[in-house]
Amino acid sequence: MTVTIPSFAKINLGLRIGATRPDGFHDLRTVYQTIALHDVVSISIERGSGIGIRCEDPRVPTESTNSCFRIVERAVQALKVRARIVIEINKRLPVQGGLGGASGNAVAALLSLERSLRKKLPAAERLQIAAEVGSDIPLFLIGGTVLGVGRGEEVYPLPDLPPTPCVIALPDIPISTPKAFADWDEEAKLTPSTHSDRMLEFSREISAWLNAAQIGRRSGVSARGGGRAENLLLDLVRTGIENDFEKVVFPKYPELLEVKRVLEKAGAKYASLSGSGSAIYGLFDSQQKAEAAAKKLIRQRTRAVVTSTLTRRQYWKRLQISD
User: At 211, phi and psi to the nearest 5?
Assistant: First the structure.
């Protein structure tokens, strides 16, 4: 039996980098947001044993270093299943683009495996396995607007932003996340700051936004009716959220900063590097403005696509999995 489902991408609505932890990772604070761009992942169950991965993109590993391999290996052990699992990845998202492609692939593989076997892991065990495999994998087990803390693996659902037109610019510049963190550490040595204060500042920003969201709920204005719900994004932007990686990535790749400026000049309500990049996104208040911005980038020889953010309900509906 073969099960095929989409593997969605994410963007980061702000990303604050803290001190290096004892385990070697950095303390992080971020707001993840799932978007409609996606890869496609298929799982086939065959006789035998072991895990095989097929992908036409040569940049995608097909051995045990692949996050799909690692998450499926743990899930098979937890479910006490003996079979050969074949994973096929149809890659549409960029590799090393900051959109969480590999992490989304891992969750799609896990959910496809459960459907193929007609067995399901408890939600807590799913999250634990996902966190063991990769820092931003657990967010794809929630979807929508998600708070990420710890090294990014500790996730909490936030009030969903309404579906918002989004332009994703995809410069052909692969950026290594470990190298970006190393550059951040070097920058921090030159401009020392109190990491705990930075984390506290982000927490205050998100708390202020959540308070605004709760006031909107009490007003009785629904997301469908617009009004307060449509201002959730602007409220979040007004907190001053930003992506710390921009401080070390943009000086090395000034063309990425120029892409962000193009999006802002085209009317983006908020534009930012996603993760460590190189993808840069802009959020717009209309499809027409988003399409115009994408066309402008394409004329400047930067690949760009128009998509939309996904609420939690939309995310799970498109996965065609009840959760």
Answer: -65, -40
Q: How far is residue 136 CA from its own chain's centroid?
A: 7
Helices (H) and strands (E) counted in the chain, each on its own, are: 10, 10
Residues marked as catalytic = 10, 136
**32: amino acid identity, one letter:** Y
For the stretch 196-228, pLDDT in tens is 777 788 888 888 888 777 665 543 333 333 444
Q: Do the Cβ atoms of 99 and 29 come closer than 8 Å?
A: no
CATH, domain range 2-158: 3.30.230.10
Interior CA angle at 313 toward 310 and 317, to 5°? 95
CB atoms within 10 A of CB 120: 15
CATH superfamily ID and name for 165-308: GHMP kinase, C-terminal domain (3.30.70.890)
The whole-angstrom separation of Cα 236 and Cα 231 is: 9
Considering the chain, what is the average pLDDT of its residues?
89
What does the domain layout of the chain look like in residue ranges? 2-158, 165-308
DSSP three-state, residue 155: strand
